[in-house]
Specification:
Number of domains: 1
Distance between the termini: 39 Å
Number of helices: 7
Structural class: alpha/beta
Number of strands: 14
Shape: globular
Radius of gyration: 17 Å
CATH superfamily: Class I glutamine amidotransferase (GATase) domain
CATH class: Alpha Beta
Largest sheet: 8 strands, mixed
Helix content: 25-40%
């Protein structure tokens, strides 16, 4: 049986650090292929051409890249397309809109098939929180809100951008006190790797990026820093 991988980036900096390919090397390594097929799903950004270009620059040279558009459909058989990939990367943007569009096109069910087949699933921001049961999102307006209808491949909650957006930490704490399930937080430049739904390790393409387990214990928020493995050379 294939190992099921999910890599949830707190923020992968594709647009701001296109030359930093450490995370891409990590994802490609998980596929076990020398020249993998890697598909990008940019639904959350409205299939932004600039985002698609940034993804292709990040992953160029690692394998065969492609992307799935849902606003202007150019791929007839989405299921065959996605299940033929070795890795699928989901971009950031509006998570709630993305999930709604996926459900209209059946992408949510196909991604479950891909996950069960051992295709590496990963993504940043919206592409990070979508795999969890619930999360912290700005999908519903200017303020952060809980999102409770994620795909649920990973139990609990996820909060990305933990270091780059000042409201993330206090709002996550507030939502946990209000009943949101405990879970994980990751800085920009850090990622959470799960195997078969179980947390395996935290990795980072930025030297000081953090990942934390965040839970409510007897009305107190407990943040437990996770050991983060930096993917680059510190010398």
């Amino acid at each position: 049986m294939s190992i099921k991988h999910i890599v949830a980036f707190g923020g992968d900096k594709i647009a701001t650090e296109p030359e930093n390919k450490l995370s891409a090397e990590y994802i490609v390594g998980l596929t076990g292929k020398k020249h993998p097929r890697i598909a990008f799903i940019p639904t959350a950004s409205g299939d932004s051409p600039a985002y698609i270009e940034a993804f292709q620059k990040r992953y160029s040279g690692f394998g065969e890249t492609s992307w799935l558009g849902l606003f202007v459909r150019e791929i007839k058989d989405i299921r065959s397309f996605l299940l033929s990939q070795d890795a699928i990367y989901v971009g950031g943007g509006n998570t709630a809109n993305m999930l709604a569009i996926w459900r209209v096109h059946g992408v949510d069910k196909i991604l479950r098939e891909a996950y069960d087949a051992g295709i590496v699933l990963c993504g940043s921001s919206a592409g990070s929180i979508c795999w969890f049961e619930c999360s912290v999102t700005d999908s519903f307006g200017m303020d952060l809100s809980p999102l409770n209808d994620g795909l649920g491949f990973i139990k609990g909650s996820n909060c990305p951008h933990y270091n780059s957006e000042p409201n993330r930490q206090p709002q996550y704490h507030s939502f946990l006190r209000a009943g949101l399930a405990g879970g994980y937080a990751a800085d920009d430049g850090a990622a959470l790797h799960f195997e078969d739904g179980i947390f395996k390790e935290a990795i980072a393409s930025s030297p000081d990026a953090r990942a934390l387990k965040v839970e409510l214990h007897e009305s107190e928020i407990v943040e437990t820093p996770l050991l983060v493995r930096f993917l680059g050379d510190r010398s």
